[in-house]
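One chain is below:
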Amino acid sequence: QLQASGGGLVQPGSSLRLSCVASGFDFSDSAMTWARQAPGKGVEWISTIYKDGGSYYADSVKGRFTISRDNAKNTVHLQMERVRLEDTGMYYCAKLGGPRGQGTLVTVSS
């Protein structure tokens, strides 16, 4: 199971921290991914963090978003900085290659 939280309504330029608690698999041995889906659009990969802590980002969020993990709490975070209108969407986490969990909605609006 994957449960994302932390979404909400924020203004452009603001910060937001998303969290995703995982259960039912060996989290510490798994690469984890964040993805998002904007209204009316397809799913966009945002970031992946591997079990060694190595991370990768989509160009659209590079330099603004930071993925991290807390293996003791089976949790993966997405720190969002300087959010933009186009960051609006449903955000999901997943084990790399696995199904998405329940998402959390981020709305960026002035």
